[in-house]
Amino acid sequence: MFREVFADEDPATYVWDGNYHQPWEPAAAGAVGAGAYREVEAEDPGRLAVEALVRTRRCVCVAQRWGGKREVMYTAFKALGDSVDYVQVCDSDTRLDPMALLELVQVLDEDPRVGAVGGDVRILNPLDSWVSFLSSLRYWVAFNVERACQSYFHCVSCISGPLESCPGPRQHAMMPSFLAPVQVHLQVPLLLRDALVLPAVAEPADTLVQVVLP
């Protein structure tokens, strides 16, 4: 399907039996501290293939060993490296306003202290079912109350996955600092929540985006 949708863009696909991290290893008995979660070697064939495709092709789809959404985002950010000025993230069912990207980038350009920016996410079909209606209420509160209040104090703690944008490493020195895909609690690896966590550096833009729910 990916090849069909992007047939005019010379798409590329790659199946990686691993990802950027080796399987998590629990701490040895009697050891102090959490277990190990290490990156694969820079010469890993899968890593080299993914980075070559991402940096030379416009449309790339990578299937990799499951590691959660954070691991997927880690692959994208890491493979891009310093080859781009900005990174735009959205869900597969996100419908962007035509001006969304320009509005997001404008916020990033206006204030170098801003490390990431998100938009106003809404449900496209709020009256089709109780699920979509309740989701639309939750989205409204999240973006128009919670994040608006946090933004007033310049400390938005979470940028929502359906629409987020941040500067690339060559634009912002803090970019590599939030790439850890898991956190460890009591020596057990836990995937971080499904949104990009950037405390104290994010502010929302006034951009419309809609999401379709069943």
From TrEMBL:
Q: What is its EC number?
A: 2.4.1.212
Pathway of this protein?
A: Glycan biosynthesis; hyaluronan biosynthesis
Q: Does the keyword Membrane apply?
A: yes
A GO cellular component annotation here is: plasma membrane
Xref: SUPFAM superfamilies: Nucleotide-diphospho-sugar transferases
Q: What class of enzyme is it?
A: transferase
Matching entries from Gene3D superfamilies are given as: Spore Coat Polysaccharide Biosynthesis Protein SpsA, Chain A
What UniProt keywords apply to this chain's record, in alphabetical order? Membrane
InterPro entries linked to this entry? Nucleotide-diphossugar_trans (IPR029044)
What is one GO biological process annotated to this record? extracellular matrix assembly
What is its subcellular localisation? Membrane
Q: What is its main location?
A: membrane
User: MF terms per GO, please?
Assistant: hyaluronan synthase activity
Could you identify this protein by its name? hyaluronan synthase
Q: Which organism is it from?
A: Nomascus leucogenys
Gene (name only): HAS1
